[in-house]
Design goal:
820 residues
């Protein structure tokens, strides 16, 4: 029996299955999708079994045997194994990297060094100085290196001597980072009558044993769950000695009981029923239901304005999916995965829902994943990685806010969850719904080309008008002598809400206190020594921080360059806005939401719950307050600066500005109270801001698509990005030139009906240095079905010696969302 294994050695020559002999004792466990520890050269590595066959092309005598199997059942379904191959080919990553992306972090493995005694401690070959060490290892059998170094911390040289003398054997073990959580429980193995009789006999001489026997007898009658050992000691004072005595007499056994880490165990969700649908909601739901019932692949774009009731359409489509006996996945952007989303779906479907997102602990995510793998739930809700939920009969996949750039993973494999959703949907014959009030232009154009069925919901579900939007020219505010970050209009609007007891949302897409620190005498700007980026000042800790590498330095009281005391903080972050609000409106209650305030577990949910309970007047935050929120008393949305994204060197800057303004404007006036939006900007004439002020997506799309066509950017072409990085700028330049030359040579061979791919670069990246490594990039534009993936991969392989020997790194990104 032969196992074909993809090994954790992601390199050009090892990115393929290797054949291993399967020992007879492991044969029952070895199946496609399990993980195994395998010998690989002098090391023991983790791997995934791709297939099991009877014969091998290799000489059987040369095949090494599998060392161990890490799973009792496959952790990757056969469909996901095949999907990993697709990910590897499409996104230019090693197969092992693609396979690990399918699993929760708890199932990422680590390798541990362990030692065993090679000779008895009493052997005459053992020097006296090493007998204690050898006896320590011999008593324990197999000792991890970490434990051994801790036990002999002040005599670490003894370990080296024992290894050199051959007194210890060293090996590697592959282990999970995290397993299931277990607690010891006490299970009765005698009848209720026998337990009661034993309790009566023990009541005088062993009252604690009698108390436990009475409790177990009652449980045996009622069929209750065995009590936990820890609970017996805590609640009843029944210690381990009483339990051990009863175990020795054959009345009970102590065994491990799995304890599910349920992040919502202490939450109660109000049950909800399907709501009556509006005409447009019903018209959007009908074709989705038909596709689910027909079990055919059908991709849809659900284009509905903010507040149009897309969530109710999702809920009722899921109900149809469950009625058809199939499973469903809902993807939402991480920043939109609010308690409101969880409440809506848990309230409708209860225990049928598993939720996976980054604010859960690794153990909680693992247990939610196992609910899916064990078929205990039929709905998975989560951010990007939830698209890999190990379902086997998917009938519906929903990608909410499909335009969000967070659906694109920036680490290898650099997949886009929207594209993976479409691929999985086609494999399962499922309906795939891409929903948004501001669709990505690529998606929108594909819908008009007939690639997707376009479903439109142009009106709000409760009949309210979209909020009125007023643009404020901050240049005029300066001319009028207003140097505050709040325009006169926004101040008046905030004051009116405070007087009426209504709530406001303020958006500023920057965290920290100020965006940079500069000396007004010599022009010195505080920069990160490891990255070509300015430091952001955080007043709460009185320090400046790099938001790319995390470098931090204390607040400077004088200029490091000229020693002038005229060093000042420029720009405004969320901390500074919060401070200014308190000065302008004494007593105002503000909740600030950014990375700094939501980093602790549960902080995100707690802050939003406080705002819903009207414990604050203003919710101030970054992008995380722009979408997914629905508060009945929010009647004002203020955008402090609409130009933040617009100034980035990215062809999608106008699109992202329009999307952000439209989404945040949609937080106002969603219920019976009318909404108002105030947008502050230094470029009020920009078309993205003008179209956003009128909630005019079609007008913006027409204008932006003309520009994209003229400049040759997506959706009228496709992009691929290669980023090369090295600590030595001269080596980087040379390697980048070689890479580009190799790429051009291969592109010349790809000439076809769509024309030769266009190579731009190599040039320094927009942020030319990150974490002490210089960066160059090559951008490729191509059209049609021209396959540039093989050319990119082969060109990167041509520099594999530089990667291996000189620490050059090459990152390949197909359909990049971020060009910085």
């Amino acid at each position: 029996m032969i196992a074909k294994v993809i090994v954790d050695a992601p390199a050009r020559d090892t990115d393929r299955p290797f054949d291993y002999a399967v020992p007879d004792k492991l044969a029952p466990l070895v199946r496609p999708g399990v993980r195994a520890a395998v010998p690989f050269g002098p090391r023991t590595l983790n791997g995934f079994v791709l297939a099991v066959e009877e014969t091998s092309d290799m000489d059987p005598s040369r095949l090494k045997p599998l060392k161990s199997v890490l799973d009792a059942a496959p952790v990757v379904t056969e469909e996901l194994l095949d999907l990993a191959g697709w990910l590897s080919r499409k996104y230019l990553c090693p197969q092992y990297t693609a396979l690990t992306a399918l699993l929760p972090s708890a199932l990422k493995t680590k390798t541990e060094t362990v030692f065993e005694a090679a000779v008895p401690p009493s052997s005459p070959d053992v020097p006296e100085s090493l007998r204690e060490l050898l006896a320590y290892v011999d008593r324990r059998g197999r000792v991890p290196e970490k434990s051994l170094l801790q036990a002999f911390a002040d005599r670490a040289e003894l370990l080296t001597s024992a290894i050199l003398l051959g007194l210890l054997t060293e090996s590697k073990e592959v282990k999970d980072r995290l397993g299931m959580k277990v607690q010891l429980c006490v299970r009765p193995v005698a009848s209720a009558e026998a337990l009661t009789a034993a309790a009566d006999a023990a009541r005088r001489r062993a009252p604690k044993q009698a108390e436990l026997l009475d409790r177990l007898a009652a449980l045996a009658d009622e069929g209750g769950e065995p009590p936990l050992l820890a609970e017996l000691a805590k609640d009843g004072g029944i210690g381990p000695s009483a339990v051990k005595a009863l175990e020795a007499k054959g009345f009970v056994v102590v065994e491990a009981k799995e304890l599910a880490r349920d992040p919502y165990a202490d939450r109660r969700f109000a049950a909800s029923r399907p709501l009556p649908l509006t005409e447009t909601q019903a018209a959007a739901l009908a074709p989705i239901r038909r596709a689910i019932e027909a079990k055919t692949y059908a991709p849809f774009l659900l284009h509905g304005v903010t507040g149009s009731g897309k969530t109710e359409v999702y809920l009722q489509a899921m109900q149809a999916c469950l009625e058809a006996g199939r499973e469903a996945i809902l993807l939402v952007p991480e920043i939109s995965l609010t308690p409101q989303t969880v409440n809506a779906f848990k309230g409708r479907f209860g225990d049928e829902v598993a939720v996976m997102h980054s604010r859960l602990s690794a153990g909680e995510r693992y247990d939610e994943w196992r609910k899916i793998a064990r078929r205990r739930v039929k709905i998975a809700i989560g951010a990007r990685s939830a698209i890999f939920a190990p379902f086997t009969n998917i009938g519906l996949i929903i990608v909410d806010e499909e335009h969000e750039s967070s659906y694109k993973q920036e680490e290898s494999p650099k997949y886009h969850a929207r594209d993976v959703a479409l691929e999985r949907g086609s494999r399962h014959g499922a309906a795939v719904v891409l929903g948004s009030a501001t669709p990505a232009l690529e998606t929108y154009l594909d819908a008009h080309r007939g690639v997707y069925t376009l479903l439109e919901m142009p009106d709000r579900a409760l009949g309210q008008p979209l909020p009125a939007v007023e643009i404020v020219d901050m240049r005029q505010e300066l001319r009028d002598g207003n140097r505050s970050m709040f325009s006169a209009k926004l101040r008046e609007a905030l004051e009116a809400r405070l007087e009426r007891g209504e709530q406001s949302v303020l958006l500023l897409n920057r965290r920290g206190y100020s965006t940079f620190v500069m000396c007004r005498s010599c022009g010195f700007t505080a920069q990160c020594p490891h990255c070509d980026i300015t430091l952001t000042y955080h007043r709460s800790g009185r320090h400046s921080r790099c938001h790319y590498c995390g470098y931090t330095e204390r607040e400077a009281t004088s200029c490091p360059s000229c020693e002038s005391e005229h060093i000042r903080h420029f720009g405004a972050g969320t901390q500074r806005v919060e401070e200014e609000l308190a000065k302008l409106f004494p007593g105002i209650r503000t909740i600030r939401m950014d990375v700094d305030t939501t980093s602790q577990k549960g902080a995100h949910e707690r802050l939003l719950a406080d705002f819903r309970e009207r414990k604050a007047d203003v919710l101030l935050g970054t992008q995380m307050v722009a979408k997914g929120l629905d508060f009945p008393y929010v009647t004002l949305v203020g955008v402090i600066s609409a130009d933040t994204v617009l100034r980035l060197p990215d062809f999608r800057a106008a699109e992202r500005t329009f999307q952000l303004l439209t989404q945040v404007a949609g937080r106002a006036g969603r219920h019976r109270l009318l909404g108002e939006v105030v947008v502050q900007t230094y470029t009020p004439e920009h078309y993205s801001i003008q179209f956003a002020s009128n909630h005019d997506f079609r007008g913006f799309a027409r204008r932006e698509l003309v520009s994209r066509r003229e400049l040759g950017y997506p959706p009228y072409c496709r992009l691929a990005l290669a980023t090369l990085a090295h600590e030595d700028i001269s080596r980087l330049v040379a390697s980048s030139e070689r890479f580009a030359a190799e790429l051009k040579r291969r592109f010349a061979e790809l000439r076809g009906t769509a024309g030769e791919p266009e190579l731009l670069g190599p040039v320094p990246s927009p942020i030319p240095k990150l974490k002490d490594r210089y960066r160059f990039q090559c951008m490729v534009k191509y059209r049609g079905e021209t396959n540039v993936a093989d050319a990119l991969r082969a060109s990167a392989d041509a520099l594999s010696d530089d990667v291996r020997k000189s620490k050059l790194s090459i990152q390949l990104d197909v359909d990049p969302q971020v060009l910085l």
